[in-house]
Amino acid sequence: MSKSEPLTERLRATWRRPLSFTSLVPVGATSGADLRSRITVLAPQIKASLAAVGGLHTFRLVAAPSEHPGGQARVLLSFVHDESLDSLLPKLMAAMGDSLAAVFAGADFSERKDDLPRLLVKHRATDRTFHLGAINKSVREILSENALVNALEAFSDERLAAGAWGADTAAETIRLELRKRILALPLDLELPRGPAPSLSSAGKLLRFLDLLATFAFPSIGVLAVHIQKAIGLIAKPGLRRVAWAAYGVWWIYGALFTGAAFLFVRLLELVEPDIVAAQPDAEKVSRIEATEDLTITNEVTYWFPVKPTWVRRVLLRVILWGSERGCRHFWTHGALADIDTIHYARILQVDDGRTLLFMSDYDGSLDRYMIDFLGVGSSAVIPISSNVYGCPKTRWLFNPDDPSTFGPRLTSLLRLDQIETQVWYSAYPNLGVREILANAAVREGLYAEEMSEAAASSWLASL
Question: I want to staple 395 with a disulfide (CB 3.0 to 4.6 A). Which of 92, 202, 288, 399 is the partner?
Fold first, then answer.
């Protein structure tokens, strides 16, 4: 693991990958408009180079607002990656270093591409919450598992057309024949030839210690609904019973603090004024809409001002700590608080906590995504957005104070604080989260040692 990565990141990488990197770099006297134009001109070259850089899941390059009115424009560079930074950053420089050096012209570096890695690491911004739709899946695995499913379907069609499998052919017989066929294919097809690697003993231990640290926080009980769902999904009955017992004992410690947290937030909600945000600029919204929904997978970047009190800045940090813990331990089956279309969601506090930066790579349309914000994902979205300037008032952290106006006002706010992304890349723009997880399940089933006839029939139906 890279020495450029913090120790906590290096430890977490033993049990939770891929990784995330974000840098927010001031570029001197360059104006925001000039920076946007500069990146837009260089965008085709950068996009054309990204596919050659292995191990990048997603990549974005954005002309970001300045920290203060009239201050320096900034470049936001962010990507989700498999390799260590020490290995990946030189590859980025080799593929597109000259273009990136031109993008960052005016920043505090020599303007040579070899000096860019130092600049990016110097201005690194830390994720407060990082959600993964497919945990511990590399780009190579995602693509190879999709190719595996395609190969299985093609061979199945071939065998069915030849009449090789009748209605009385056992599902387990078909599964074993399919596995034999895949293993006989040439190695250069790079199809998976065994189950996915299991987590190491060290990784499992570190994950467990991180879970204990989560429950050391006495107010984590605010996520009770999600914790209970996560316990219910534990496959082994014995382990599930132990988890329920431990969770019940934990409430002896956490009940008072959780209740106090809710009361504090409710008092804050009562005394704060209801601030109505400005309407989004129609021309900007039109430009953004012209670039949306072009593939199955899309992106959105939000730049939210945080409510201007130190209490809200601190509260937001605490809430994001809790949401990060949810992503690590409770939202681990492809869904972020029941939104199952998100590949990666990163939330950061920048500018000394005065700005909330939200970046997401997701499936489907943005309109549908915003509906999910207010529907199945509201238990994660509302607590975070309640700290944003212009967010409608909430009640007991998770609920709209006025349900009839909350949705339209928050939707308008989302468009107001959305910023245009000049460069965005996905290594698999036509693969949805559900498909990636389904492909992984097909691989596991194919290479299982043995299956009951019922399990084999279920597995075949997934093809």
Answer: 399
DSSP secondary structure letter of residue 326: I
Q: Could you list the beta-strand ranges (E) of 364-439.
A: 394-395, 399-400, 423-426
Residue 260 and residue 161 share a domain? no
- Please tell me the distance from the alpha carbon of residue 259 to that of residue 179, in angstroms, as a whole number: 54
* Residue 23 · residue 78 · CB < 8 Å: yes
Do 139 and 427 meet the contact criterion of CB atoms below 8 Å apart? yes
For residue 117, say if its preceding peptide bond is cis, omega within 30 degrees of 0: no
CA distance 122 to 26: 11
Cα–Cα distance, 6 to 277 (Å, whole number): 37
Q: What is the DSSP letter of 198?
A: P
What's the gap between Cα 248 and its chain centre? 31
Within this chain, do residues 236 and 167 fall inside the same structural domain, yes or no?
no
- Is residue 426 situated within a structural domain? no
Task: Please indicate, yes or no, whether residues 292 and 312 belong to a single structural domain of this protein.
Answer: yes
188-195: long-range contacts, CB 8 A cutoff, minimum separation 24:
189/147, 189/151, 190/140, 190/144, 190/147, 191/144, 191/147, 191/148, 191/151, 192/141, 192/144, 192/145, 192/148, 192/443, 192/447, 194/447, 195/443, 195/444, 195/447, 195/448
Closest to 307 measured CA to CA, from 280, 341, 272: 272
Tell me: do 64 and 204 sit in the same domain: no
pLDDT in tens, 289-333: 888 888 899 999 999 999 999 999 999 999 999 999 999 999 999
Q: Please give the residue range of the domain that contains residue 163.
A: 143-195+432-461
Write the pLDDT tens digit of every residue in 330-367: 999 999 999 999 999 999 999 999 999 999 999 999 88
